[in-house]
Amino acid sequence: MKYVKYFFLLIVSLSGVILFTACGGQDEKKTEVRLAEVTRSIFYAPLYAAISEGFFEEEGIDVDLTTTWGGDTTMTTLLSDGADIALVGAETSIYVYAQGANDPAVNFAQLTQTDGTFLVSREPVEDFDWDDLKGSTFLGQRAGGMPQMVGEYVLKQNGIDPHEDLELIQNIDFGNIPSAFASGTGDYVQLFEPTATQFEEDGVGYIIESFGTESGNVPYTVFMAKQSFLDGNEDTIERFTRAIHKAQLWVQEQPAEVVAESIVDFFEDTSLETIEQVVIRYRDQGSYAESPLLQEDAWYLLQEIMDEAGELPMEVSYEDLVNTEIPTRIMNE
Predict the structure, then answer these.
(1) What CATH number should be reported for the domain holding residue 146?
(2) Could you tell me if 141 and 102 lie in one domain?
């Protein structure tokens, strides 16, 4: 019996070694993906859920997430090989392509499909009409960025000439726009969440309209990679996209409070209640894409919006800068 006991202990010990080695082997097989996000926003909730809920881990991916603050910086980081994948507005890929890039940035998965800004007034407004903006001072976003282009597009669709019918202020840095409005600049302002909701909670301003619902579906924020990276790492891109799609479905299915609890650690200065409210607002207006597949009509609406703003350097075909094969495979699984 003594020898049987020792034999059993030996087997258990060896099993532990084997299990440890196997686990270590799995860790070693994880693929690190360097991801640069254009900003940190509840607008990107499915991305953070993919991390916190372990969807990337399930696909053998270890995401190294960096916030690069701004479209220009994010694209520079991607093109200089400082990141493998960028989360940024699809318009940046058009700007790069128009400059004759030999290794263009290709969009392979959509994360948000509407604009994420809201029209906020200084005073409460009942029965708002877009004509109310005529003669007002409007604090907009910087020229050439998607928020400003969509903002101008929506104003024009509602019969407002942003350069004739109101005083348009767009020379304030993105990060200083909220404080400028809070200190008294402008009658109306175009704001992202959670600032818009926080302004309502503090009585600083009042959300009266959504640019996202007014503009229609556009590939507002997408995951993109250089063509060379896509060609050499198709399996990694496919696993990455599968994790994102899992998170997209999860965010749609879960109660807003569960989503908020999942991503709260990414927003240390925002209360759980505010995050929940923002998730509800974005989800209700269809901002979170339910599919990673960037639609062709949305691609050309994006270019129409850019053209209206005088920012479209050239028309680029859907086939040139949108990879549909990978997200289609994921959707058909």
Answers:
(1) 3.40.190.10
(2) no
pLDDT digit string (tens) for 161-205? 999 999 999 989 888 999 999 999 999 999 999 999 999 999 999
At which of 180, 215, 250 does a domain end?
215
The neighbouring-strand residues paired with 32 are 62
Q: What is the pTM of this model?
A: 0.89
Token pair in block for residue 142? 């910087």
Question: What is 3-36 written as a DSSP string?
Answer: HHHHHHHHHHHHHHHHHHHHHHHHHHHPEEEEEE
169: left (phi over 0), alpha (psi -120 to 50) or beta: beta
CA distances from 280 to 56, 61, 214 (A): 24, 29, 18
Closest Cα to residue 63, out of 90, 86, 92?
Answer: 86
In three-state secondary structure terms, 114 is: coil
Structural domains in the chain (count): 2
Q: Which helix (H) or strand (E) holds 326?
A: helix 325-331
In which domain, by residue range, is 173 found?
117-215
For residues 223 and 244, is the Cβ–Cβ distance under 8 A? yes
Domain identity same for 148 and 165: yes
Same domain? For 139 and 189 the reply is yes
Instruction: Give the pair of three-digit tokens for residue 77.
Output: 């980081």
